[in-house]
Amino acid sequence: MKKPYVKPSISKIVEGMPSKFGFREVVDPITEIDGIPVEKLIKEYGSPLFVFSERTIRVVYRQAYMAFSTRYPKVQFAWSYKTNYLDAVCRVYHQEGAWAEVVSGFEYDKALRNGVPGDKIIFNGPDKTREDLAKAIKNRSLIHIDHFDELYTILSLTSELEERPQVAIRVNMDTGIYPQWDRFGFNYENGEAWTAITRIMMSDKMDLVGLHTHIGTYIMSPKPYGVAAHKLAQLAKQIEEKWGHRISYIDLGGGFASKNTLRGAYLSGKDTTPSFEQYADAISQALIESGFDSYNLPVLFLETGRALIDDAGYLLGTVIANKRLADGKRAMIIDIGVNLLFTAFWYEHEIHPAKDVPPYLEDTTVYGPLCMNIDVIRTNVKFPMLEPGDHVVIKRVGAYNTTQWLQFINMRPNVVLIDMEGKVHVIRERETLETITSLEKVPDHLKEIGLSDTTENN
Ligand SMILES: *Cc1c(COP(=O)(O)O)cnc(C)c1O
Question: What is the CA(344)–ligand 1 centre distance, in A?
Answer without folding.
Answer: 19
